[in-house]
C-alpha cells in the first residue's frame, strides 16, 4: 500500500516537471521571436558646425631685437677740464638741453685775442684804403708815379685780406668756445655719464662722454627666410616703405598687440643663411620699448584670401592621413579626408576636402563611425553653444559683425 502511493507521487512530480519545461521553452521561443523584431539603435548625439568661408591673411612669425632709430655718441670737440655734468643718468632730455660743460676760460681768451686782431686789421685796412684813394687822385693829375700807386693799391688789398683772416680766426675761436657747452643733439634718453667732473677730456678720447637713443619710435630688426621673401607682394619686396602690416609682442605680452609697418628690406640675401635683413618701425607711446629688447614679430605675407578654418579638436588622424566626420542630409556620418594648411592660434586652415555648407562634427567624433545615424546639434565652429536661429560665427568675428551679417 505504501509503495503504491510512492509511485503515484513520483508520476505526479514528473508531470509537473514536464509541464514546466514546456512552458519555459514556449517563453524562450517568444523572447527570440521578439528579439528578431526589435527597434533600430537610437541616433548618436553629436555637435555639428556648418562650414563657412572666412577672408584671412597669411602671417609669418619671427624673432628679433629692438633697435633705436637714432643713436648718438656724445663726444667733446675741444679739449679741457670737465666742469659740469648737467643731467641725471638715464633720463629723458630734449634737443638742446645742456649735458656737459668744459672749462671755457682758455677759449674765451682765444676769442678776445681774435677780436683784438680783427680790430687791428680793420684799422689797417681803413688807413690803406684812405691812402689808396688819395694816390688815385694824384695819379689822375700825374702828381705820383705809377709805381707808387701800385704799391699803395697792393697794401690796401693785403690789409683787406688780413681783415678776412682775422674774421675767420674769430669765428673759429667763437666756435671752440661754443663747443665747451655740450648739448643734446636729439630728443631721447641719455645713458650714464662715463666721465665725471674734474677729468680732462678731448676730441681724441676713445670713450664717449655718454650715449643717447631716440625713444619715440624704435626698429624691430629680424631675419626673413627666402621663401617668405618670395611670398611677399612685389611692392613690399622691392624695398619701398609701404603699409605692409607688421605686429609685435614683447616677451611678457600675450599675442601681438603692437602695430607697426615695414621700414626696410636689405638689398641682398645672405647666401650662407638664406635670409634677408628686415626692419619694422613701431611707435613707442608708453615708453616701454627699449633698444635690445627681445621681440616676437608677425608680418603679413601675400594678399587676403578666402579659406576654411576648423578647430584641431574636429580633425582626426588616420595613420598618415587627416580626416573629419561630416553629416549628410539624412543625418548619416561620413568620412572625409582633408589637407591641412597653416596653424592660426588653435585654428587650422583646411586647404582641400571641405567647402562652404558642409556640416562637420566638432564634438563627439570618437563616438561614431561612418554610416552611423546621428542626432546633430548645431554649434559654433569652435564647439560653443549656438543660439536658436543664429548662424555659426566666423572665427575672430565680433558679435556686432555677426549681427550685421
- Which residue ranges are poorly predicted, with pLDDT under 50 across at least 5 consecutive positions? 1-6, 28-38, 387-405
Taking all residues together, what is the mean pLDDT?
Answer: 83
The profile of the biggest β sheet is: 6 strands, antiparallel, barrel
Radius of gyration: 47 Å
Do you know the CATH topology of the largest domain? Elongation Factor Tu (Ef-tu), domain 3
CATH superfamily of the largest domain: Efflux pump adaptor protein, beta barrel domain
Q: Sum up the overall morphology in one term.
A: elongated
> What letter string, H or E per element, gives the SSE order?
HEEEEEEHHEEEEEHHEEEEEEEEEEH
Helix coverage percent: 25-40%
Subcellular location: Cell envelope
Protein name: Efflux RND transporter periplasmic adaptor subunit
Keywords: Coiled coil
Pfam families: Beta-barrel_RND (PF25944), BSH_RND (PF25917), HH_MFP_RND (PF25876), RND-MFP_C (PF25967)
